[in-house]
Amino acid sequence: MALIDAGRTGSGAKRPVRLFKNMTAKIAALPMIATALVVFVGCTLWTI
């Protein structure tokens, strides 16, 4: 049903901003990104 309604712009509903689309998944990914960055930086500093 969403594919059918996607082309209609006369309904008055605004499309969500692409930045805020799927925001819960982006928030849930933050710990994974933080862990990867800490491991990368930590291992880099360990080898110096």
What is the gyration radius calculated from CA atoms?
20 Å
Please trace the helix and strand order, writing H or E for each element: HH
* Strands, count: 0
What's the main sheet like?
Answer: none
SSE blueprint:
Elements: H1 2-5, H2 23-47
Protein model, in words:
The structure is a single chain. The protein has helices spanning 2-5, 23-47. It is 60% helix and 0% strand. The protein has a domain at 15-47. The chain contains two helices and no strands. The longest helix is centred in the C-terminal third of the chain and has 25 residues, at 23-47. It has 48 residues and is an all-alpha fold.
Concise structural overview:
This protein has 48 residues and is an all-alpha fold. Helix content is 60%, strand content 0%. It has a domain at 15-47.
